[in-house]
Amino acid sequence: MTNPTAKPKRHLHRILMAGGAGLVAITVGVYGILGGYGNSQSANSCAVSLAMAENAAPHVGGEVAAFLPAERPLDLSALAFQNDKGESRTLAGFSGRTVLLNLWATWCGPCRKEMPALDQLQAERGGKDFEVVAVSVDRGSEEKPKAFLEEMGIHTLAFRHDPSNQIIADLRKVAKAPGLPTTILVGPDGCEVGTMYGPAEWASGEAKGLIDKAVEAARPAS
């Protein structure tokens, strides 16, 4: 994970334990993050995402060993960013679909490394039930991140951008964006299913298996 203002690893463990996530082996530093954005929702309003987290939990391991299933899902539907036309969009617009929200930047080495895997995941799993939403947080114009995606041969992922970095500010208020990359699985109800701090091999069998199990729990019983 790329982070210019690292703190000792013990600080991250205290944050995670306070949130009920337990001890997780994470070999990165974090920003100091506090706040109250995105309150935990009632059991009913985030029931789908909670069921998804419970279904995915037994499949945490391997390339996604650091994935943290949500115990008290947060409503993230108001998180905003821009599409490739510069129009404002929020996660609420993906209602009914599971989203893997990935925050990245061209200056973040681990982000650059995992981008092809995210592109492959979208190519293999993207559809009416699931989409990878990768949001560039590069400041300034969209030219640099778009040029990077072109250079890397990333053609399946739709371009999303937040030059204001407001999406990071909002997530830091609920201790959900300690650095880049940060990736959050969001259920069709707009609530958090689980979070990954740092890079992962998202095209791996473990990652696809975890996501498949989460999406499976979101489908109506036949």
From TrEMBL:
InterPro entries: AhpC/TSA (IPR000866), Thioredoxin-like_sf (IPR036249), Thioredoxin_CS (IPR017937), Thioredoxin_domain (IPR013766), Thioredoxin_ResA/DsbE_sf (IPR050553)
Alphabetical list of CDD domains matching this protein: TlpA_like_family
Protein's UniProt keywords contain Transmembrane helix: yes
Pfam families recorded: AhpC-TSA (PF00578)
Membrane-crossing residue ranges in chain numbering: 12-34
Presence of the UniProt keyword Aminoacyl-tRNA synthetase in the record: no
Keywords in alphabetical order: Membrane, Redox-active center, Transmembrane, Transmembrane helix
Domain Thioredoxin, first and last residues per copy: 46-220
Gene3D superfamilies assigned: Glutaredoxin
PANTHER family: PROTEIN DIPZ (PTHR42852:SF13), THIOL:DISULFIDE INTERCHANGE PROTEIN DSBE (PTHR42852)
Record-given protein name: TlpA disulfide reductase family protein
Organism of origin: Roseibium aestuarii
